[in-house]
Amino acid sequence: xxxxxxxxxxxxxxxxxxxxxxxxxxxxxxxxxxxxxxxxxxxxxxxxxxxxxxxxxxxxxxxxxxxxxxxxxxxxxxxxxxxxxxxxxxxxxxxxxxxxxxxxxxxxxxxxxxxxxxxxxxxxxxxxxxxxxxxxxxxxxxxxxxxxxxxxxxxxxxxxxxxxxxxxxxxxxxxxxxxxx
Length: 181
What we know:
By secondary structure, this protein is mainly α. The chain contains seven helices and no strands.
């Protein structure tokens, strides 16, 4: 087996494994599969976590994970898939960040790892054992890479920033109520 064959096989394993995990998490949110709550429960949870409005936030997170994960696993539109999944994981990181780094404490280790892995695959490309390769990289162009990562980065920054501002406002209001009582 040549070096290029091993690299392509390694990318296939990494893409399929990462994509399957992301897709499973996304389908929990969207459809309630694999013990998930489905869209209605996820929307309520998103509201409770400060992502408003809850239903569009749940839909975006679910589609970023399920859609991005499925496309990563297939190796199709890999830059957009990696960027979408990484953007969804940025929101998850913001939820888990107050608990610190490690997963066993509820920290952001796991979503950060998934996000970085998805981003790395999106940046690296899918390899020869992929639908991108089979389609002549029609959906994996340099402009697609730039547009996908800039768009996902801006969207993630806007969503996470909006949540942080809303939480700060709510916290300031709670502090004001507590001192007035």
